[in-house]
Amino acid sequence: MKISGLLLILLSICQLSPGQTHGEKPSFNLGLPTDNAAIFSRDPSKFYMYTYRSFEGVSSHPWTAGRYGFVRNQRRTSHGIIFTRFHEGIDIRPAHRDKNNQPLDDIRSLADGVVAYANKVSGRSNYGNYIVVRHDWGDGPFFSLYAHLRSISVKKGDPVKGGSLLGKLGYTGAGINRERAHVHVEFAMMLSERFETWYKKYFTSPNHHNIHSGLNLSGMDIAGLFHSHKANPSLTLPEFIRMAGAYYKVAIPSRNLQPLPITKRYPWLERGRDPGEFPAAWEITLSSSGLPTEIRPYAKKITRPTVTWVKDSPVSHSYNTLSRLSGIGSKATLTNSGQLYIQLITDTF
Ligand SMILES: [Zn+2]
Questions:
Q1: d(Cα 306, Cα 321) in Å, to the nearest integer?
Q2: What is the per-residue pLDDT for 55?
Q3: Are 128 and 162 in the same domain?
Q4: Which DSSP string corresponds to 21-86?
């Protein structure tokens, strides 16, 4: 008895990854990337950098366009003004400038992690100079991305702590100048480890950023995450992601009756499958921006990706889904770009 008990303990210890204590995941911690902490203040305009807007002959520079979400490209419809362009991160104003208005802010890692990618050739991306840091709290890899940097002081493979210096705030990349200098920050899931194959199949321009292209990183509501995490420090990322509202569901045939590769990275995405059940199809739930929030077995047999549900909308679904769906009301179909997107998420290309 004594020996088998000891063996059991030894076996369970051997299954732990380094740094983990028995039965616990590393705790999920999050800090702000610059000295600008006005996200928690009563005046968010001190936190977010504005953009320039010209709409129906009126010019403005709304700070609200620096938030995460559908905050850009206004369009008047018979159901009022809507925003059709999605901003996948937040634009944080500099907290420090010199007398020539040059931003001086340090950019720091949001949390412990490893530098996964650093783009130091600013002309190769709309993000300009940017860094991607990979974090893992036991629920799969998550990625923070810091864009438009003036300089980068880390390299791929460097381990970083929450608060470690990554670089300096700047204004590299498309559509940005000294006045509008900011750091664009995203917090994302990775869609496919075979992104480069998918990209080569459908795009002719070179991909300089391997699997760390913005196209392969699906950003979540990072400002909502800061607020939710502050209100409830024990909140987990799967819990937070499931809070993102469902906008549509797509069923796809199950290849070789196997779980989808994305659920190997994010096992918590898959729900409702009995042990030993190998369904003929899967149903993926997505937010309006395309963040996958849940994957379940789908009972009906299908031959190709099919929209099985969409949130009722009085305006075209195209506006609400980055043009991945067409249709209106309770009817929707995948557009070409929607089909390519589903292929990327499901590794079926
Ligand atoms: Zn931005």
A1: 15
A2: 83
A3: yes
A4: PTT-PPP-----SSS--GGGSS-GGGTBPP--EEETTEEE--GGGGSSEEEEEEEEETTEEEEEEE
Q: For 50-109, how does the pLDDT look when each residue is reduced to its tens digit (9 = 90+)?
A: 988 888 888 888 888 899 998 888 888 888 888 888 999 999 999 999 999 999 999 999
Q: How far apart are CA 46 and CA 38, in angstroms?
A: 6
* Residues 241-282: tens digit of each pLDDT: 999 999 999 999 988 778 899 999 999 999 999 888 889 999
Residue span of the structural domain in which 205 resides:
27-236
CA of 10 relative to ligand 1 center, distance in Å: 49
Q: Alpha helix (H) ranges present in 162-221? A: 195-202
230 in a domain, yes or no? Answer: yes
Phi-psi region for residue 163, left (φ > 0), alpha (ψ -120 to 50) or beta?
left
Residues 249, 230 share a domain: no
Centre of ligand 1 to C-alpha 49, Å, is: 9
- In this structure, are 69 and 141 located in the same domain? yes
Summarised one tens digit per residue, pLDDT across range 12-60 is 444 444 444 455 677 788 999 999 999 999 999 999 999 888 888 888 8
The reply to whether 4 falls in a domain is: no
* Ligand 1 centroid from CA 89, angstroms: 6
Cα distance from N-terminal residue to C-terminal residue, the chain:
53
| 3-state DSSP assignment of residue 320 | helix
Contact of 82 with 175, CB cutoff 8 Å:
no
What is the Å distance from ligand 1's center to 329 Cα?
30
- For the stretch 223-232, pLDDT in tens is 999 999 999 9
Ligand 1 centroid vs 67 CA: distance in angstroms?
8
Same domain, 212 and 66: yes
- pLDDT of 8 reads 47
What pLDDT was estimated at residue 12? 45
Q: Please name the residues in contact with 128: beta carbons below 8 A apart, sequence gap of 6 or more.
A: 119, 122, 147, 148, 149, 170, 171, 172, 173, 174, 176
323 CA from centroid of ligand 1 (Å): 20
